[in-house]
Amino acid sequence: MASRKSILYLFDVDGTLTKPRQVISEELKNFLLEKVKSKVAVGLVSGSDYVKIAEQMDGAEVAAKFDYVFCENGVVQYRGGKLISSESILGHLGEKLLQRVINFSLGYMSKIELPSKRGNFVEFRSSMINICPVGRSCSQAERDDFVKYDSVHSIRQQFVDALKSEFKDSGLTFALGGQISVDVFPTGWDKTYCLKHVADQNFEEIHFFGDKTMPGGNDYEIYNDSRTIGHKVISPEDTKEQIVKCLNV
């Protein structure tokens, strides 16, 4: 086994370390920060912002114990709990295009009938727009209902296809985000963006663990990147099992 500094383990959050939008288990948290971190560098890479990631890691003081936290696909990066750098989708694309995307999305979603609809359909983040047909204000039960409905009717995939058709020459990428939403970001601002932040560390290996590794999923690009060793997982329990096999811990 190479020294700790020569290997980096990067983890998606939702579906990989936690159940979607839930808090990491005490067992997995301790396993990562005590056993795994003693052997390799550890980092998080998520489409969410730092506040949401910290909540899911059971607090900002826990998130700060990870060597790296790459928010919003790595366009916003933290090290040791401190903000190091960030980029702005508004500055990159401009107001006109952003409003076109938002207006089209709101119009499209207004025509969809779902088991329920709540509030916060469009969430503007530093590096992306997160669009949610059911509304991010939905309850856990309403989220679960949408997930089941989406698995049958492919609501989000049809939405992604419509966005790709409408904005095919815009320089934007549209991907399934988490369980209930669609992420919109400049092409190239997927999770591989975070890899540039660790290039100067000269890691011998970078392992990535994620669940949305299929084409159109927001883990697809980094999972398949030549700079990473990809591990497809199906749950936090599966993530732990795969780490145990990799590290013999």
Automatic annotation (TrEMBL):
GO terms for biological process: GDP-mannose biosynthetic process; mannose metabolic process; protein N-linked glycosylation. It catalyses: alpha-D-mannose 1-phosphate = D-mannose 6-phosphate. GO terms for cellular component: cytosol. Keywords: Cytoplasm, Isomerase, Magnesium, Metal-binding. The keyword Magnesium applies. Its EC number is 5.4.2.8. Pathway: Nucleotide-sugar biosynthesis; GDP-alpha-D-mannose biosynthesis; alpha-D-mannose 1-phosphate from D-fructose 6-phosphate: step 2/2. The active site is at 12 (nucleophile), 14 (proton donor/acceptor). Mg(2+) binds at residues 12, 14, 211, 223, 225, 228. InterPro entries: HAD-like_sf, HAD-SF_hydro_IIB, HAD_sf, PMM, PMM_cap. Alpha-D-mannose 1-phosphate binds at residues 21, 125, 136, 143, 181, 183. Belongs to the eukaryotic PMM family. Involved in the synthesis of the GDP-mannose and dolichol-phosphate-mannose required for a number of critical mannosyl transfer reactions. Homodimer. This is Phosphomannomutase. It comes from Helicoverpa armigera. The lineage of its organism: Eukaryota, Metazoa, Ecdysozoa, Arthropoda, Hexapoda.
